[in-house]
């Protein structure tokens, strides 16, 4: 009996020493100002001033709080390191001297905080005013010589582990499980809208018809404002959504339009490339080991951080590819449209608006 008490006391002392060591290490981590700026950006993808502002926003606008053992800064650093590297939580935890369980808790708390409606509405917002849309139109006109464009739209696959429920809805035609995430970006690669609710088996056109952007763009058109998004041929031609002309006569205005359309739509491809290179947990070879709902939240959190990085004018990671071939190439197949009278009428109106746009080139 006495021996058991001694063993229990020794075990408790060992646990206490490990906890004390971790606590002391975390205290030293609070002085992140001592880390060189370039090394800090390499590990956490944000510079120090942007990191401090992010911590303050999370403290003020969300319920995220630190504790004596784990300060808020350490929680945010842990989450940023996980999102930036896509490494397993155990490896990330070792770098911050945290257990895997504590690392998981920190990542989820910070991800939930980044999904707070206040932060989402602050950093991801579709242009609501005529002035905002006019500024974007002018930039697309200046860069790509296409009038009326206020954004580019496409979907990208975010790999996840095989879910235990409704597995078929997440198995994409590439042969792996994923979320099919729709995004809209502007000329500066800023994400203006994101829909991460659907599995990889869902077609782009279905996600578009279920999104909040579609009725908003329809409303702008019906209000007499000639603005549109650019999408690939996986999307339906509409008066507010312009798609390329797949077979255009050589030397024609249609070919000129399609050339400029393709050039302008590289914005969304470059946006995907920058997003996934900066926040590498979204890369195809990383695979998010989470329930689809949690993977969706992680994707949204990365998009918020993407826009924060753009706002801070942070340079792109040095290993970003010059050209990015996205995981989703649904542009090679035409979307299947229902033959309702409403869809036929919208298609006719869409082609009429497309002809109007071509005549302005």
UniProtKB/TrEMBL annotation:
> Which intervals hold domain DUF8040?
39-114
Q: Provide the DDE Tnp4 domain boundaries.
A: 153-307
A GO molecular function annotation here is:
nuclease activity
Q: Which domain of life is it from?
A: Eukaryota
Where is this chain's protein located in or outside the cell?
Cytoplasm; Nucleus
Q: What does this protein do?
A: Transposase-derived protein that may have nuclease activity. Does not have transposase activity.
Task: Identify this protein by name.
Answer: Putative nuclease HARBI1
What species is this protein from?
Parnassius mnemosyne (clouded apollo)
